[in-house]
Structures are given as structure tokens and as C-alpha cells.
Request: fold
Amino acid sequence: MTRLALAVLLAMSAPAGGALAQPFPARPITLINPYAAGGPADLLARAVAEGMSETLGRAIIVDNRPGAGTAIGARAVAQAKPDGYTLFIGGSPSHVITPALMKDAGYDGIASFAPIATVADVPNVLVVPPSRPYKSVPELVAAARGAAGNMTFATVGVGSIPQLLGVLLQLRADVKLIEVPYKGGAPAALDLIGGQVDLAFLNVPAVLSQVRGGELRALAVASATRAKALPETPTMAEAGYRDFAMGTAPAARSR
Reply:
């Protein structure tokens, strides 16, 4: 965490010009997270904030701004004063996918931000409620085909990795699913546990404790290799679907 904090400090202080006469940071820093509280991005943002705060000696305030496929949070950062006191934790959805899909996201995913550091590479896992009968990807696909388009899958917004993985599953398995959007992985996981939705691709950290506790069943990870945290769970390739790896690499960015 210290290495990340130092990288952030160097990236923000270098272009400050005349402001170098005043030690940075002179006041608290805001770290905007475009996802809901309690999800993996939120946990990661708070871990980063804690490490930065210890290193810099200033409070790092995590500000959750979920919604619109990360556009709400990203837009707030893009419109902030470019003085290094507003940071953003995002990834491919916020910087590439959402600006490409939205007619006017209100920001440029590349030009509006100054990249600082990659903080994690998070695999996604296909999870289902334990009340469902399917215990493998082939069984899930067979159930989806028999459901005549009535099975549901949870996402965390348009252009999100969970949505794209759900769409990819439909295309590759030739099934029809109903999308149910959420503002973050935490509320999606809660409805999965309660059986309100049938399946979802979610970040491993968001559902790891629930999988280990038996509240959710992991069918496969959407990564090139098995996840270290879930060594018994096969990859989508092992389940019969090659080229089905799509992870999330959150990165710290400044404005």
C-alpha cells in the first residue's frame, strides 16, 4: 500500500508548478468510487485510502457515487478542479466501455484523467443461489434453455463487466436471459442469496465469503486460470467455453 501511496503522491505533485511551495497535501483528499458501498471496488477503495492516509498524514475520504454505468462518479471527477485533491478508482467500464456506449457520458475516458497506478486485477466468478438445482455451467445452460427466456442475471449497470459477461454467455451458449441491473456488486449479491435472481458474474472478492459460507454456489471463473481464492472452481474454458476471460483492473486516477 505504501508503494501505491508514493506513486500517487509523485504523480500529483510533479505538475503542480508554483504550488510546490506549499507541501502536498495541504488538506484532505477525496477518492471517488463509482460503485455502491460494500462491493469489491468499495473495499478496495477503502484499503487504498487507508494506506494513502497513513503515508501522507492526511485524511483520504472515500465518496461513493454509483449509477449510470460508472458515469456519475467519473463525471464528477472529470469536472473537478485538476489540483490532485480528487482521485478516482475506475477500470475499463468507466474509462472505455461507458464512454463508448453512452451518447454523452459527459467526460472523455482518457483525456479527462491522469492515470496514477493499477491497484488490482480482479477475476469474476459465475455464481448462483444454492437453492437452484444446477451445479455446473452445462447444467446452468441446460436450465436456461428450458426456461424459455425467463432466467435472470444480475449486472451492475450498462457496460459493466458483469453485464458483458452475461451477454457473452447468452451468445456463446445460445440462451436468452433477462438482465436485472443493480448499482453495485453488494446489492446484486444480496438478491442472489435471497433467490431473487438466478445468476451473476461478480468480482470474486464481492462474493468470496458467501461462496465459502455456502450462501452462493460458484460454477466457474471468467479468467484464464483458476482463481487462487477459489482453487476448486473451474474456469469457463474448463467448463466448455474457451476465450471467456474478462477481468477487472481498477486503477487510481487523479484530476
